[in-house]
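Give me structure tokens for this 522-residue protein.
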Amino acid sequence: MTTASPILAGLAFASIVVALTAFGRRLPFPPPILQVVAGFALGMLPAVRAPELEPEVVFFVFLPPILWAAAFFTSLREFKANRRPIGLLAIGLVVATTLGIAWVARQLYPGMPWAVAIALGAIVSPPDAVAATAVVSRLPVPRRVIVILEGESLVNDASALILYRSAVAAAVTGAFSFGESLVRFFLDAGVGVLIGLGVGRLLIWTAKRTQDELAETLLTLAGPFAAWIVAEELHVSAVLACVAGGLYTRQHFSTAVGPSSRVQSRAVWDLFVFVLNAMIFVLLGLQVAGLVRETPPSELGGLLWPGVVLSAVAIVIRLVWVPLATWLPRWLSKRVAATDPVPRPKAVFLVAWTSMRGIVSYATALALPLTLANGAPFPYRDEILYATTAVILCTLVVQGLSLAPIITRMRFVPETHHRREEQFARVEALRRAAEALDDAAREGWANETDVAWLRSELRERLRQHRDPDAGHSRHKLRSRMREAERRMLVRLRNEGAISDEVLRDLEQELDLDAMRSVRVGH
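Here you go.
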């Protein structure tokens, strides 16, 4: 490959990401599938070779920020309210899928040791966090379904990786202790959570003292990598460290930094996570293309076919597990049945059907050691890599493409609970603001004209929130006024009356006001 080839490949990669950003939301296909296809097409070009994908790089570059961001934007209240179904999926289902896959794998690959089979099961058992949320979050589904799927994706990688490491250690050394593995499971999880909480607390403590928007944003970006590094150095669950750190930071971030930092951090993280997600699936497509190019066509089908069988096994286990995990606790416990009624069958089916695999499974398969402790090659390593690839492709294609039509046919009733909570919060916040204004008005420095003007504004905002349909004309008029202000600011800049910096600052004020108005009047 020539020197220019990496540059051309990089430009092609960037072009694909931009194109998918521009057109992906208009097409009836989930973004992950489009990105995988684009990466595969790029990888099949004669001048392009798939990059060597180092598992450690994948885990360190992609997982920490994605897990941290997912935890940061997760509602702790809803996560705790759904901890039973999340735990049954993220731990119980991972174990069940691992064992089911291991048993079937031993039938498909005669002679495969149990430890190696369990490692394969742990590799393909956890659904991918990015793929699930990228598909389901864009569709009209019940909020609880999204919470459960997102909560599952926060924890299942941790349980799967702990099982994976125990199985690989047993395969390499030939020794395995169930009691030791069980103790290690809870020790890794507990210490990982403590590390995440410690990193989150240090981040918040530092952010309160910096008083600098850029430094505070950089702190949030450094947090997940710090948690991951410390946990990896101590050989505990780095996944749970990132999850715990993200959750803790979210609970204290609003009081630790100012408005500018919150706006800036949200914008930076939205872009960062989007780019990472796009890179993940384009890279996955590149790896699949490389695998296809390196394998003789006559052998490819035989190598991928067991993975197709295993993907069907994983899907069936989930389809059986989710209804049982939904209804059994309610049959066995009257308290659970009374406090948490049985959800609608179509919501249960939707959770059961959403289980696409992704780059984490592929990187975990690549991370398998090349040799055992005695120097012999690791058994069935190549077969595991091909099987994992097939499972990823089958679940992405079969489930990813079918989710949108299935959800459309289900016709879920739009939920209003979130909107009611939002309206309640706005009214209560304005009520407290009015009380604060009354208290301040009694102080000597308060100007009566300013107080009267602010009271009028508060009354108007309160009326709009109590009657969302009111004030549409006013919103439209304000929009016209803002656009006129913006055009005048641009004209003044073009005439040299103001600098670009002044334009940027004043334009940001107009933009924030426009965002608030859209939010209020949506």
